[in-house]
Design brief:
Blueprint: H1 3-28, H2 33-73, H3 89-124, E1 128-132, E2 138-141, H4 143-149, H5 159-162, E3 175-180, E4 183-196, E5 199-208, H6 210-250, H7 259-288, E6 296-299, H8 300-308, E7 316-318, E8 325-328, H9 330-349, E9 355-361, E10 367-373, H10 399-409, E11 413-418, E12 424-430
Parallel strand pairs: 7-9
Antiparallel strand pairs: 1-2, 1-5, 3-4, 4-5, 6-8, 9-10, 10-12, 11-12
Helix pairs in contact: 1-2, 2-3, 6-7, 8-9, 9-10
Length: 440
């Protein structure tokens, strides 16, 4: 039985006793029979009308609330229930439905704005984005994706139809050479999965690395040419000037009495500058030809003590800690330590300071070799690792660059910073690669 039918039955049951009493009273009245039937019929008709009105008045508000909830299910939050009051059951229900509708309307507005913002951001990205459903059909892409595949009719097509199957190959490198309808070059391909309504979906991002690499290459060349040009000018300018002076001297007739002394001094300067230029080019070649490290067991204590025992202008103190063995290239690590210690010695010479070397083991197993000096400290860190930049007379400007390359080749890093008590601290961090027994 429906809710409306039950309401009607309850109303009939409520009116039935009074109706029976009325008919009993009519039977006891001393009136004609047709009058009794007329009064009884009128009473029954009025009861039926009242019951019908009662049923409609109860069902109509419920149908109104039902229509509002149905509109909410269809995401139409414009309907509102009238007569909402807090002092009766129907009013409380209408008030709560109105509040729920308003809350859902605000949430939908937020979702629409967020989706519009997301679409705008996705459309402006230079990377090509592709979202596939659980069947491998394209659901979403952006303008970069359409340019990459040279088509605007992509939605609904499968991965194979789009020619993107190679992008889902296992063990794909982070940068790969590929050819697409919209262009070829070196690409960064990132894949991920997500779930929507319990079904796994795929997300693909393809970024063009060629332009970024070209920009970085251009910047590197510009910086290199600037440094090379500066160094070459420093050597060639005095050579040219002295050569011109000597040419004028030897062109005199008769020769000056001290022309031999001038020639010796000029040729000495030319030889000195040529030697400096040779050292510079050799340093450049050394930096460019750094080989890949050959990993083998390296005892940190023996390595540090061996490097510290070399002849420097100042004694180097070794602060002994627990011995550690790591996997690395002993020759390259030795060269990096020599560069760091020599820098510390050069800085401490001006202040009559002290140079010390120690090492610690971090919580993740990495080893940190620390070179401490009591020099004047770093005046700036902007050009520390710029190739061929140096503030030392006769320096090549590759020591720190070479040391950092060695650290990064060992998957580590090199950090230089000033100490609070004065001087500089060079921290060479080498990760715990593999144990000695695991060497292959």
């Amino acid at each position: 039985m429906t809710y409306t039918s039950r309401l009607t039955l309850y109303a009939i049951a409520a009116a039935l006793p009074a109706t029976l009493v009325m008919f009993v009273l009519l039977a006891l009245l001393d009136v004609p029979l047709h009058v009794r039937f007329g009064i009884g019929g009128a009473v029954v008709l009025m009861t039926v009308l009242v019951l019908f009105f009662f049923r409609q008045r109860l069902a109509y508000p419920l149908r109104t609330l039902s229509n509002i909830v149905a509109g909410m299910r269809e995401r139409d939050y414009s309907l509102r229930a009238r007569g909402g009051r807090d002092d009766d059951a129907h009013g409380e229900l209408a008030t709560e439905i109105n509040r729920l509708s308003e809350q859902l309307r605000e949430q939908r507005l937020d979702d629409v704005e967020a989706a519009a913002l997301l679409r705008t951001l996705v459309a402006q990205l230079d990377s090509a984005l592709f979202a596939f459903d659980h069947r491998g059909r394209l659901q979403l892409t952006n303008a970069a994706g359409e340019r990459l595949l040279a088509s605007s009719d992509l939605l609904g097509k499968t991965i194979d139809e789009l020619g993107l199957s190679p992008c889902f190959a296992p063990a794909l490198p982070s940068a790969v050479e590929m050819r697409f309808p919209g262009g070829d070059g070196k690409w960064s391909i990132r894949r991920s999965t997500f779930r929507e309504k319990g079904k796994e979906r795929h997300f693909l991002v393809i970024s063009d690395l060629s332009r970024a690499l070209r920009d970085e290459e251009l910047f590197a060349w510009q910086r290199l040419v600037r440094v090379l040009g500066h160094e070459l000018n420093n050597s060639l300018a005095p050579i040219k000037s002295i050569a011109s002076s000597l040419q004028r001297v030897v062109a005199l007739d008769p020769l000056p009495h001290d022309w031999r002394d001038d020639a010796k001094r000029g040729l000495g300067v030319i030889a000195t500058r040529a030697e400096a230029l040779t050292r510079f080019t050799q340093a450049y070649a050394r930096l460019a030809r750094l080989p890949r490290p050959s990993f083998a067991p390296v005892e940190i204590s023996a390595l540090v003590r061996r490097v510290a025992s070399l002849r420097y202008q100042l004694p180097v103190h070794v602060e002994h800690t627990t011995d550690v063995t790591i996997m690395g290239d002993a020759d390259q690590l030795e060269q990096a330590l020599i560069n760091l210690i020599q820098n510390g010695v050069d800085a401490s010479l001006d202040t009559n300071g002290r140079v010390a070397v120690t090492w610690t083991t971090a919580h993740d197993g990495a080893v940190e070799i620390v070179v401490l000096d009591e020099g004047a400290g770093l005046s700036g860190s902007l050009n520390l690792f710029v190739p061929f930049f140096t503030t030392k007379p006769g320096g090549t400007g590759i020591g720190l660059v070479l040391s950092r390359q060695i650290a990064e080749a060992h998957n580590g890093n090199l950090v230089l910073q000033n100490r609070t008590e004065g001087g500089c601290e060079a921290r060479l961090r080498l990760p715990a690669l593999r144990q000695v027994g695991e060497l292959r």
